[in-house]
Amino acid sequence: MMEKKKINFIGGLIVLLLTSQLSGCASWFSGKDNSEKPAPLVEFKQTAVLKPLWRESAGSAGDYVFTPANMKGSVYAASHDGYLSRYDADSGKQSWRVETGKKLSGGVGAGDGMVFVGTGKGEVLSYSDDGKLLWQSQLSSEVLSAPQTEDGVVVIRTGDGKIFGLDAKDGKRKWVYQRATPALTVRSNVGVVVTHGAVFAGFAGGKLVGLNLINGNVGWEATVALPKGATELERIADITSLPVVDTREVCAVAYQGRVACFETQSGNPIWARDISSIAGMAMDQRNVYISDDKGAVVALDKTSGSSVWKQDKLFARKLSAPVVRRGYVVVGDVEGYVHLMLIEDGSFAARAATDGSSIGSQPVALENGFVVQTRSGGLHAFTIQ
Prior knowledge:
It is found in: Cell outer membrane. This is Outer membrane protein assembly factor BamB. By secondary structure, the chain is mainly β. It is built from no helices and 36 strands. It has strands spanning 4-10, 13-19, 26-30, 50-57, 69-71, 74-78, 83-88, 94-99, 104-111, 114-119, 123-128, 133-138, 148-150, 153-157, 163-167, 173-177, 184-187, 193-195, 198-202, 207-212, 218-223, 244-245, 249-253, 257-263, 269-275, 280-283, 287-291, 297-301, 307-311, 323-325, 328-332, 337-342, 348-353, 364-366, 369-373, 378-384. The strands form nine sheets. The chain has a four-stranded mixed beta sheet, with no helix packed on it. Strands 4-36-35-34 form a four-stranded antiparallel beta sheet, with no helix packed on it. The chain has a four-stranded antiparallel beta sheet with strand order 5-6-7-8, with no helix packed on it. The radius of gyration is 20 Å and the shape is globular. The termini are far apart.
């Protein structure tokens, strides 16, 4: 019988899981990525300062990637052990901490005065911004990413590739979107982007879709990358990170594939470039910024896709997706360092250490800086001076 195969990126390892439906047996293969040692940190003349604002502990992430959320001056963070906490974004003072009683698996989503977390058993929990449980909904598979909400709809992606639209009032299902997936896919914590009445999501096989937020209908589908190569492993071209969106264009990047931008309304292609990324990208008014799978940060012109700069001194440091803050590009790495690069040329401007554990999730923008969450559960907020 046909085998189901999945690549699992957990703790920075590439693992191939082969599960036979006939025998129920499983075997594990460790990929070459595990043997690459992070490049040593280079010396540079510091031109900016990453000043710590505050530091707190949300609890360990375990084998998952947890992303904090910023809503109306508060930071919300969760842990695999089931704790959900609220902190003041300026001081880090904890407002409340609740024990959900569940093993959480997805980062925090927040919006419209509500906070959302997911579990490995496919449950979604909704809390008010003062920590009271509002509702719980059961979905089809584990929740590995942060739920998103807009206009009374909560959108959640599950590990089996489905996207659910739930009523924000009571968690009842409004719609579900699903599509066929290739035999071999990358297991990741990729979620969705919800903005301006639409849902944007990338999929295995290099596809990007735009859905109607209210009913889940497909507005358009586009191809970011096409699988290529002689083996199933070489032919993986999955979008394992969030797309980036503005009013004119939406861009996405695929592992072993390309980065491509499309018209937001129609899905018509604008440009594409060969590049491979697991972590993802950011965008501002001029450029898109990509953390590629080798540890380089690449800036491309948003209009044409032409190269602007490349910072390649972070080889194999397993970078987070970047965020743009106050004229700088910010990334975290596998050893818990935060790197600050000038937006004009990618040169290093500042560096700061956290707690030594991996920063797997994208830094989250604050009004006066940004916050990162480490694998060991540390929340570290910085301002740029």
